[in-house]
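tool=predict chain=A
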Amino acid sequence: MEYMSQEGYDKLVAELHHLEYVEYPRVKEALIEARDKGDLSENYEYHAARREQARLLGRIRFKQRVLEFARVLDTKRLDTGVVGLLSRVEMTNVERNTSMTYTIVSPHEANLQEKKISIKSPIAQALLGRKVGDVVEVRVPAGTQRFRIDSIQL
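tool=predict ok
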């Protein structure tokens, strides 16, 4: 079971719809055109279209599977006293005295440009269940870093 936000769920549904009703028909049409060009054994366009079709079908099946097991979290029932899924955490790197804010989301919603980190990331794992004022140590590729939790919001 995969828990996610309503926004993430809706985005995944829209992406699946685009793949099924825009991308797949385009690839299917390219496959038909390539097949009409003659000898299939030496037809590069045909083989490329088949590979694209297989890749696209794989993505469609993956997204369908994720949605099949997805559960949307009711944000009204979440506790803002401790860090959990969908928590927006403001924290300070103790050594560098720099502030940062991340929202902890499902792996399918993670996007660093939007400051959304996966619940499976080392930072999120270290923050889970912690409260405001707690200092956590996180092992990251750059070494061990210490963060102080300044606030938790939804």
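Residues 90 and 101 are 4 Å apart (CA to CA). Helices lie at 6-35, 44-69, 122-127.
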